[in-house]
Amino acid sequence: MRPCGAAMGGVTVLVNNAALKASVAGDGALLDTPVNVWDRVIAANLRGPMLGARHVLPDMVAAGNGSIVMMSSTAALHSVAGFATAYSSAKAGMIGLMRTVAATYGTQGVRCNAVAPGVIMVGDDTESQEAFRKSSGGLVQRPGQPEDIAETVAFVSSDAGSYINGQVLVVDGGLTAHMPGLSQGSNA
Question: What is the pTM of this model?
Answer without folding.
Answer: 0.86
